[in-house]
Amino acid sequence: MSSDADRSSPASQDSSPVVDGRGRRIRLPSGDGSADGQLSRVDALPDDAEFALCLTHDVDRPYKGIRSLYYATQERPRYHLRTALSSSNPYWQFGELMQLEDELGVRSAFYFLDEQHLLADRPVSEWVSPSNWVQHLGRYDITSNEISAVIQALDAGGWEVGLHGSYHSPTDRDRLRDEKRELEAVLGESVTGGRQHHLRLSVPETWHHHREIGLEYDASLGSTTECGFHGCYQPLRPFDDGFVVFPLTIMDQALPDPGTSFEAARRVCERLLTEAAANDAVMTVLWHPRYFNEQEFPGHRTLYRWLLERAQELGAWIGSPGAFREAVDIDGADDTQPTETQSAGNSVDGTSPTAPRANVRDRP
């Protein structure tokens, strides 16, 4: 691990706010306990790791299908029309992704989406919007034989299966609960965490909902357009209990295109990896499975492998957010589970918490 001299000061690491998926800037703690609205953090790393790299994959659209027609209007019409007529499915990359991670001895989290049906579940007023049609095209059924088999294979192989909360669910606790139960019925065991679709997050309302339906962590806080730590090197504990928020450091689409600017994308990853190692950070990355299709997203598979291999060289612990949470034994370190009423005055609501900054396990 880095020495205290090498590590960034609390003030420097908190100098910029986290930016959520809708561009809102969210104030984070100052680290010295002096600022109002301080959030406690998970100030620990598994084993003797230099830093942690949490791997996540949002399963938005495992089938390309009719979306090929839409893409054909945007670029490369011959290719996209050919995929529309082909029996092959270029977005089905589960086997390739699992093989890549297995070769490197790592595991990740896959978040599955139970999206609403536009015509059956959404108001008629939304039917006339082209953006809504694009949003709902490619919706899949997590109870189908093919998807169920993938979910069970991931679980059997040691990967984490989590919830990808649907587009309209951030403020709908009942919807989130139903989606979680549906996924658990397929998985055959409890789901402990996930991420909201499009990083749509209402702070702190969505986290209250996650916590109350039994989720132990959320990985939605971050930016769809900018890579970086956004002012926070450690996961947050917004309610000073076992519920953890993993800020997103890298989303695939926010990087320079590795198909045309591979070295630029690699340099961004290198900079963030070395920054993570220098600050004992927890770095969370998101690669959508479809980005491993080299025909449409060249360079991403190679870059992802390089990222993992470089992190291993730098002494990182690598795994899913759920595995990280278990490795630092957050529940064992803090058994307090405040009720929703007790949590209403916590730091994410803009008032000072009563609990001090928490250490799960002190770092050397």
TrEMBL record:
GO biological process, one term: carbohydrate metabolic process
Name used for this protein in its record: Polysaccharide deacetylase family protein
Organism classification: Archaea, Methanobacteriati, Methanobacteriota, Stenosarchaea group, Halobacteria
Signal peptide: none
Organism: Natronorubrum aibiense
CDD domains: CE4_u7
InterPro entries in the record: Glyco_hydro/deAcase_b/a-brl (IPR011330)
UniProt-annotated stretches for the region Disordered: 1-40, 329-364
Domain of life according to the entry: Archaea
UniProt entry keywords in alphabetical sequence: Plasmid
Composition bias, Polar residues: 336-354
